[in-house]
Specification:
The protein has 283 residues and is α+β, with helices and mostly antiparallel strands. The protein has two domains: 82 residues; 166 residues, Sandwich (Jelly Rolls), CATH 2.60.120. Helices cover 30% and strands 25% of the residues. It has five helices and eleven strands; from the N terminus they run ααααβββββαββββββ. Strands 1, 2, 4, 7, 8, 10 and 11 form a seven-stranded mixed sheet that branches. It has a four-stranded antiparallel sheet with strand order 3-9-5-6, with no helix packed on it. Helix 1 runs parallel beside helix 3. The radius of gyration is 39 Å and the shape is flat.
């Protein structure tokens, strides 16, 4: 009987240590102060209850600074990252990649070649603030994307695109002189068409452009198929460049030449051959 009482006392003691708000059963039932063995058990449970409270208070005091420190870290780390992380657009330019996005084109009817909506992005600088005086263009790629979410869609709406020197800037002759007279640049630098929506020049070759040169970029859309809904598109173009002072920069300059074939609409029409684009020939 004594052994059972001691085991019960230990169990009750543990319960009181965990739930300090509970009262001893004898106190709750009689409302009188117990005496004898029961009084000793009450004192024992009271000591254990106070000990448990002390442990909890010490744990609370010790953990509060760590909790506050964790909250501060959770707030400060994202803020510091947002301030110190590199701007994606600036990083892309530093890596030699610049993205150009055209205006939105609404295709609500048939637009044949050279008849679709188009736009010009003017005054483009491929290397704003660059230390090198020359930028080499090594490639160009264009894709048709949805006007709203800018995700690639059918490429059938692409008519053509042209990367040119700015119409109201310096002339190709002035740029050629600036480059030492060893280049033969034209007004038009690159042209992309259906079936050739990207150009990647071989290693070691490129089109040199003065770093301060202003460029224009024109894109045009088309729509050759009847549709039961309006299609809104944009042209997204990536221009690949590298500064002349960077390792791996091209050493052989290329230039564009094209033969323009014009068909007369009348017998009396007069025209001559053209092999060089002229200022303002964005189309």
């Amino acid at each position: 009987m004594s052994l059972r009482f001691q085991r019960n006392s230990k169990a009750v003691g543990i319960l009181f240590a965990l739930f300090g708000g509970l009262k001893i059963a004898s106190l709750g039932s009689t409302g009188k102060m117990p005496v004898g063995p029961t009084a000793k058990m009450a004192v024992l449970q009271s000591d254990r209850r106070e000990s448990a409270h002390a442990v909890l208070r010490n744990a609370g005091v010790m953990s509060r600074p760590f909790v506050l420190l964790a909250i501060a870290g959770a707030l400060v780390v994202p803020a510091v990252y947002s301030i110190t992380r590199p701007d994606p657009e600036a990083k892309a330019k530093a890596d030699g990649l610049q993205t150009l996005v055209s205006e939105a084109y609404r295709l609500d009817k048939i637009y044949r070649s050279m008849e679709g909506p188009w736009s010009i992005q003017s005054g483009i600088h491929l290397a704003a603030g660059a230390k090198s005086g020359v930028q080499w263009v090594t490639g160009l790629e264009t894709e048709v994307v949805d006007a709203a979410v800018q995700k690639p869609i059918s490429q059938e709406f692409f008519c053509h695109s042209n990367l040119t020197f700015a119409e109201h800037g310096r002339t190709p002759l002035q740029y050629n002189q600036q480059l030492g007279g060893k280049t033969h640049l034209d007004w038009r630098l690159f042209t992309l068409v259906p079936g050739r929506s990207s150009i990647e020049l071989p290693p070691g070759f490129g089109v040199p452009i003065p770093a301060d040169a202003a460029l224009d970029y024109v894109t045009m859309s088309l729509n050759l198929n009847e549709r039961d809904q309006v299609v809104n598109v944009r042209m997204r173009t990536k221009v690949h460049t590298i500064a002349a002072d960077q390792p791996g920069a091209p050493t052989k300059a290329l230039f564009r030449r094209a033969l323009y074939v014009l068909q007369p609409h009348g017998v009396s029409a007069k025209m001559g051959p053209a092999c060089m684009a002229k200022a303002g020939m964005h189309m």
